Amino acid sequence: MNKGYLCIVLHTHLPYVRHPEHEDFLEEDWLYEAITETYIPLISVFEKLLQDKVDFRITMSLTPTLISMLQDPLLQDRYLKHINRLIELGHKEVERTRWMPDFQNLANMYLTRFYETRNTFERYHKDLIRAFKNFQDAGKLEIITCGATHGYFPLMEVVPASIRAQVKVAASHYERVFGRKPAGVWLPECGYYSGYDEILKETGLKYFFTDAHGVLHGTPRPKYGVFAPVYCRSGVACFARDLESSKQVWSSIEGYPGDYAYREFYRDIGFDLDYDYIKPYIHPDGVRISTGIKYYRITGSDDKQPYDPHLAQKRAAEHAGNFMFNRQKQVEYLSELMQKKPLIVSPYDAELYGHWWYEGPQWLDFLMRKIYFDQDTLRMITPSEYLNENPRNQVIMPSTSSWGWKGYSEMWLQGANDWIYRHLHEASERMTELAKGYHNVNGLTKRGLNQALRELLLAQSSDWAFILGTGTHTSYAVKRTKDHLLRFTRLYEDIRANNIDEGWLADIEYKDNIFPDIDYRVHQ
Amino acid sequence: MARVKKIKIRSKKAAPRKMAIAKRRPALKKLSGIKIKNDFPGQAQLAVLSAKYSPAQVAQVKRPEVRELPRKYDRDRIVLQVRDPWWLHSYWGLKDSTIERLKSELKDDFYRAQRVLRVYDVSQINFNGHNAHRFFDLYVNEHSDSWYIDTGAPGRSWCVDLGFMLPGGRFLTIIRSNTVTTPIEGPSWITDEEWMIPEDMFSRLYGMGFGFGRSSPVGKDWRKKALFSGILSSPGITSMASPVKKPKAKKFWLTVNTELIVYGATEPDALVTVQGKEIKLRPDGTFTLRFALPDGKQVIPVKATSNDGTDTRAITPVVNKETK
Q: How far is residue A447's CA from residue A442's CA, in Å, rounded to a whole number?
């Protein structure tokens, strides 16, 4: 009989970056890298666990923007081109490293992986969402939704219609993709402000997540801290992050990913090799970028040693054992204090696994196997299953919070990005005005209204404010914010003047083609 | 592929802006505005879709593309947002007509008045303008349109007036903000009766939530100041935002690597092996191979065999590399 539960949540998000108007677009590589290094490795792990009949549980929030990109034919074909180029580079590397066996082994490892990656991609007919849907239908994976474009809700408090649109567009998109209603939602950046869970209830969502202090600082005090969900007054459940388990994986100082045996993220041949040689595989403008082929391990000194996959694999297994041991101790201790089985919620950005921490998917694989085969103290569970087993929970009002820098809204509201809110809020007000003012329209006006909502939602992605806040490579974030707001403004004016330029509208429909079934009337 | 002919005509109702010249061209090129390949996925569908909704004749007015967002909007508005338990952010804007009205009402006082943000503590009340628990004033520059406000007290509700402090000391409200509530900065003092829990048990749970717990043999004390210092922020996304960023600037440094390029040419249909391994020739019969070159001696036999198998040629470069 188990004493407690572990709920691993992978928040899986990328902003909508798709530029049909350019042959090559640097920021589209975010998606291609994540497919090669995170999404497909995770799919491979889940496939093998299923094959070996390991009864695992995992929760993933696949954001509507990411789903839309993974299902977009243009990006699918571009990814295929991308992986084919990597295969070509892999062959050249195997040749180039002929007299350096340590490196040639690695080159061969990458080449094999690239072939496997392409094989997996094609096996799912270029649509990786099919893979995730299979795991959900098999009862192992719980997929939850998010804000439509990952808008940060606490800074939409004055325009709740936009929160409603973010949530409702996401939920109906989910239903269309997965053929069922989403059970829960990952609030973008875990951004919660007290009271807006009513909108979640309206949409039929049963739970969401906050960072630890969202519940620990809730009112009244949570009896079981973060180790059991609570209900908001609306009846929507709230799960809070356990910081101890988070830290073991997240922390750049003490966390597992910093182990010297693991692969060094920053030493990529895209930066290390001779410019003329690598030029065909970096950005066409000649900007050096990561290729994904990295030959060194972290090592712990400047004199980097070649990566040793066997050593790294051994270490990943040890770390999985260590993680499990600590969770066992945690639930043993907690189960003495609680009248129900404690739940440890460990959420991570999915892109941490594989992209940043190369061995992360392996670690997850070991962890889920060990939990299933090696012990009885701990079991994995999804939030829905836990709520079914424990329907009675304390009622509290969670505290305004996020999981970002400093725990509140400063990451998205500081000198570098606060200028955007005047424009975003104005656009939201205008969108509400349009939604309330136009009924029973069709043809061009309806297309214009729907596109206006698409542009507004795309402008609201928290990613732009985040990038502006980090202060590096901000030009793209500025451009996206302005482009969408300007397109929205022009649509607003043209709709009201009953003077929509059909050619221009068709052009932005073609560029910003997300959410084909959107209904502008949700923005109220 | 669907092709739609469109004829733009001048609409009599259209606003008197610059008119586009009527042109006949395929709809597809219009869609993108730039040259695109014909085999774009989704392109044909989109053209069909757009053809479906396009009336045969569309009134169009070409407008110049706006590149910049406006500095302000024609709306009297002040917005208050929560940054964290202690700090608020406010931005505001006034219509030109509001400013003109104030000028005509206040006359010279308009220019002598100072702009003030009056911050009201309206916790747990229905604020009517006069019943705030307390307020404080922040003098703001005439040209400011946003401000960060240090409230000095977390867990309270706040509302802000933008107004004028007139020469006589009278405060005149121009616009009032929405009300926001900041979070408390620690655990709540409220423990409801039904769920009353002993202080020590709560503090153990609370401590564990923050990683102070003794249950875990690994992991040192995790002091509170380190909690949100960014070590928990996402490295994945950080790297996304700055793909080129390296962890730290190095001291002065130098790296030298050597590579060896072996190149040559033969008949395009010949079979060529290098160190016994077959290589692929370019269509013109040339080849280039590139190797990382470690220290030591490399013997590189290159052998070419003619297509009919009757002729062979072999050349064997020997390379010695030494690093001093």
A: 7
Contacts of A108 in chain B (CB under 8 A): none
Domain at B77-181: CATH code = 2.60.40.10
**Structure tokens belonging to residue B294:** 């470690």
Rounded to an integer, the average pLDDT of B253-259 is 83
pLDDT (tens digit, 9 = 90+) per residue, A217-268?
A: 999 989 899 999 999 988 899 999 998 898 888 876 778 999 999 999 989 9
* E strands present in B146-238: 146-150, 157-165, 171-176, 180-181
Amino acid at B128: N
The DSSP output letter for B65 is P
Instruction: Note the pLDDT tens digit of each residue in B192-230.
Output: 634 534 455 456 566 665 544 333 322 223 333 333 333
- Whether B240 sits inside 8 A of A14 (CB atoms) is yes
Domains B77-181 and B259-321 share a fold: yes
Asked if A473's CB is within 8 angstroms of B241's CB, the reply is: yes
**pLDDT, greater one: B200 or B310:** B310
**Residue linked to tokens 């991609």:** A121
Sign of CA dihedral A41, A47, A52, A58: positive
Crossing angle for the helix pair A360-373 and A40-51, to the nearest 10 degrees: 20
Contact B83, B180 (CB under 8 A): no
Q: Is A196 left (phi over 0), alpha (psi -120 to 50) or beta?
A: alpha
Query: Which residue in B233, B221, B202, B235 sits closest to A407, CA to CA?
Result: B233
What pTM was computed for the model?
A: 0.84
Question: What ipTM was reported for this prediction?
Answer: 0.93
Given CB atoms, is A285 within the 8 Å cutoff of chain B? no
Residue type, A521: R
The shortest C-alpha distance from A247 to chain B (Å) reads 7
Q: What is the pLDDT of residues B113-124, one digit of tens each?
A: 999 999 999 999
Q: Report how far apart the first and last C-alpha atoms of chain A are (Å, whole number).
A: 49
* Structural tokens at position A214: 């969202």
Q: How far is CA B265 from CA B6, B292, B315, in A?
A: 56, 21, 12
DSSP-derived letter for residue A264 is P
Q: Which residues of B touch A497 (CB under 8 A)?
A: 15
Cα torsion B205, B210, B213, B217 to 10°: value is 150
Q: Which of A173, A205, A84 is nearest to A515 (CA)?
A: A173
Mean residue pLDDT of chain A comes to 95
Q: Do A399 and B184 touch (CB under 8 A)?
A: yes
Superfamily of domain B259-321: Immunoglobulins (2.60.40.10)
Whether residues A501 and B62 touch (CB distance < 8 A) is answered with: yes
Residue in this structure with the two tokens 């491979």, named with its chain if needed? A44
Distance between CA atoms of residues A49 and B79, nearest Å: 51
To which residue do tokens 């909007």 refer?
B73
Strand partners, B162: B117, B175
> What is the residue extent of each domain of chain B?
15-59, 77-181, 199-240, 259-321
* A94–chain B Cβ distance below 8 A for any pair: no
Q: With cut-offs at 50, 70 and 90, classify the pLDDT of residue B288.
A: confident
Q: Nearest by CB to A290, which of B85, B243, B293?
A: B243
DSSP A224: T
